[in-house]
Write a structure and sequence with these properties.
3 strands
Length: 92
């Protein structure tokens, strides 16, 4: 299994909710990390590289509606983007 709770593990050390920028390169985002993303209210720039894009759902990652007003830069490196993901991207 290549899935790890990277953000969840780091959240015990750092206050991730105050991060302004995030570069996140992983094989797959875990459910625990989806939950951490929803708490990151201060994000302004995000770069995501997911190596197993079948395991990626942008709606889950950016489910926090407050992020739509604060994020000014998104860089996605994915193998596949779903139609639902395009709807989310248009909100920014």
């Amino acid at each position: 299994e290549k899935e790890a709770d990277i953000l969840a593990s780091l959240s015990h050390i750092y206050e991730l909710s105050k991060l302004n920028e995030l570069i996140y390169k992983v094989y797959r985002i875990s459910n625990a990390d989806f939950k951490i993303f929803s708490q990151m209210n201060a994000l302004e720039a995000i770069k995501i590289q997911i190596y197993d894009s079948d395991g990626f759902c942008l709606r889950n990652t950016l489910s926090n509606c407050q992020l739509y007003a604060s994020i000014y830069y998104i860089d996605l490196a994915l193998k596949k983007i779903r139609e639902d993901d395009i709807i989310i991207i248009k909100k920014f």
